[in-house]
Design brief:
It is a single chain. Helix 5 links the parallel strand 3 and strand 4. Strands 3, 4, 5, 6, 7, 8, 9 and 10 form an 8-stranded mixed β-sheet that branches. Strands 1-2 form a two-stranded antiparallel sheet. The protein is of the alpha/beta class. The protein folds into 3 domains: 84 residues, Winged helix-like DNA-binding domain superfamily/Winged helix DNA-binding domain (Arc Repressor Mutant, subunit A, Orthogonal Bundle), CATH 1.10.10.10; 103 residues, 3-Layer(aba) Sandwich (D-Maltodextrin-Binding Protein, domain 2); 103 residues, Periplasmic binding protein-like II (D-Maltodextrin-Binding Protein, domain 2, 3-Layer(aba) Sandwich). InterPro entries: LysR_HTH_N (IPR000847), LysR_subst-bd (IPR005119), WH-like_DNA-bd_sf (IPR036388), WH_DNA-bd_sf (IPR036390). It comes from Cohaesibacter gelatinilyticus. Belongs to the LysR transcriptional regulatory family. It holds the Pfam family HTH_1. GO terms for molecular function: DNA binding; DNA-binding transcription factor activity.
Length: 309
């Protein structure tokens, strides 16, 4: 294979400039070199290729048929080189590429609306893709490099993962409007009948957290709501009571007062929300900064009024 060391990108740029300006002097001025220098480089390129790129006369420069084919390919090469340069710049700043985030179902629909606009303002060139799955699947996916980060309410089991806590989300006690505890702003934990608490289905980590709070020993207990939305509907229908993460109260007004909401006294009842990434990820410093941006967003007044409700 013939070596290409005889042609440089600068030679291609010179040839394209001559073709576009149709004049060696004007092309030289555009490229910031002397006319003899650009003429010499074009001649060297023609000698290397074994063909003439231009027809020359005292008044004009015209691209030959062979030259047109060479220059078309030269434009492609210059374009690909620019793409390579842009790619290397974007790789040096991964927050201008795509970030795939996995979030558990009891967090995703309630947190994401608070994050979209501020994150778009902070990272205007970042494309964010959201995957919603239960915790075990998310951990498997991030360990398998299918996800960049995950947001969960539990610490991961895999040692290869690092954790940053984003915020603490309190629980509220919800019950049907005709429940004996309804109508009070605050209910003490000791007043709540734990047997009335409806659990989520087993795939949700919030189920095991609620069962632990209620001191339910039998983890195989059947039944439960498949989602927080279904859980809210069951409370509205009078099927029982529920501990709801406070952000999931968004939109609860559609139940038109059928659900009574209460703060819980007698302890700190809630869950910590974590952002998790691989400790081996070379983007780790950027991901830590991303986590800190989310922490800042959760501390802004617009979101604190939900978390501190």
């Amino acid at each position: 294979m013939r070596a290409l060391s005889g042609i440089t990108l600068k030679d291609l740029e010179y040839a394209l400039a001559v073709a576009e300006e149709k004049h060696f002097g004007q092309a030289a001025s555009r490229c910031g070199v002397s006319q003899p220098a650009i003429s010499q480089q074009i001649r060297k390129m023609e000698d290397f290729l074994g063909l003439s790129l231009f027809e020359r006369s005292g008044k004009y420069v015209k691209v030959t048929k062979s030259g047109a084919l060479i220059l078309e390919k030269s434009r492609e090469i210059i374009g690909k080189t620019l793409e390579l340069s842009q790619l290397s710049k974007s790789l040096s700043n991964p927050m201008e590429l795509t970030l795939t985030i996995g979030i558990i179902p009891t967090i995703c629909p309630y947190l994401i609306p608070h994050l979209i606009r501020p994150l778009k303002q902070i990272y205007p060139n970042l494309k964010i893709t959201i995957i919603e799955e239960p915790t075990p699947i998310l951990e498997e996916m991030i360990c398998g490099h299918e996800l960049d980060i995950i947001i969960t309410a539990t610490h991961p089991e895999a040692k290869m993962l690092e954790v940053t806590t984003l915020y603490f989300e309190p629980y509220v006690f919800t019950c049907p409007e005709d429940h004996p505890l309804a109508g009070r702003e605050t209910v003490n934990w000791s007043e709540i009948d734990k047997n009335e608490i409806i659990m989520l289905s087993p795939e949700h980590c919030l189920r095991s957290q609620t069962m632990a709070l209620c001191d339910v020993k039998d983890q195989s207990i059947s039944g439960g709501a498949r989602s927080l939305e279904m859980l809210r509907q069951m409370v509205a229908l009078g099927e029982g009571c529920a501990l709801l993460p406070i952000l999931s109260l968004s939109g609860i007004e559609k139940f038109q007062g059928l659900i009574a909401i209460h703060k819980i006294s007698g302890g700190a009842f809630g869950r910590s929300i974590h952002m998790i990434w691989r400790s081996t990820d070379p983007r780790k410093p950027h991901l830590k900064t991303f986590a800190n941006e989310i922490i800042s967003i959760t501390n802004e007044p617009n979101m604190r009024r939900f978390l501190d409700h």
